[in-house]
Amino acid sequence: MLKGVDVLSNRGSAGHDLVHLLHTNTLLPQACCCACLFVLILLLKLFAQVISCFGLAAVSRLYVGFALVSLLVEINSVFLHTRQLLLLSGRRNRPGPEVASPRPSLAFSVVSWLNLGTFLVFRFCTLGWMACWLAGQSEGLPHYVLMMGTAGLSLMSIMNVVLFYRLLRADVLGNTNKSSKSH
After folding, report:
1. How far apart are CA 159 and CA 124, in angstroms?
2. d(CA 26, CA 84)
3. Per DSSP, which regions of the chain are E strands?
4. What is d(CA 86, CA 123) in angstroms, rounded to the nearest whole number?
5. What is the 8-class DSSP label of residue 62?
6. How far apart are CA 157 and CA 175, in angstroms?
């Protein structure tokens, strides 16, 4: 019973995020360029996919274990959101005279590295395991379940690769370029 509640709460969380993004117009004003429009469409498809996959697990009471494993991805979200809060609160850089080349604060550095580490473990490894499981079970799964799982994992994989690249570029590669230019 508790597993079903976890699955339903994640479905509700995805629905809430979608309504919040649309209600606050966080995405719509940025949808002026093709890349932003592509990301918007990808996000909308992802929300629909997440809601339908978790809905299938909750209603049919099948694949609940698979749905719960997918919740491991949310462990990384803790560090992703903490990083965002540090950015929004202006605590990315250490206070000091380095106006031209500010150094990241200790808190931001720790959260950034924890974010990247948990990203690799709880996003890439979990999604990789899920893809292997889905491929291994493909003969015994109904066709619509296989299609839903494949579509959901494909969307999540694309979005995770793009997000990881953006995080790596902003937190690691950006710092390397700045420090190599100053020497």
Report:
1. 11
2. 15
3. none
4. 22
5. -
6. 26
Helix (H) or strand (E) holding 179: helix 174-181
Element (H or E) spanning 181, and its range? Answer: helix 174-181
Question: What pTM value is reported for the model?
Answer: 0.69
Structure tokens at 98: 């380095």
Half-sphere exposure of 74 (CA within 13 A, CB side): 13
Neighbouring residues of 51: CB distance < 8 A, sequence distance ≥ 6: 11, 14, 15, 18
DSSP secondary-structure letter at 96?
A: S
| Of the candidates 164, 68, 151, the residue with the CA atom closest to the CA atom of residue 124 | 164
Report which DSSP code applies to 93: B
Altogether, the residues listed in the chain come to a count of 183
User: Shortest CA distance to 63 belongs to which of 121, 123, 140?
Assistant: 140
Lowest-pLDDT choice from 61-70, 122-131, 141-150 = 61-70
For 132-182, write each residue's pLDDT tens digit. 999 999 999 999 999 988 998 998 899 899 999 999 999 988 765 554 444
Instruction: Determine the Cα–Cα distance for residues 114 and 102; give it in Å rounded to an integer.
Output: 21
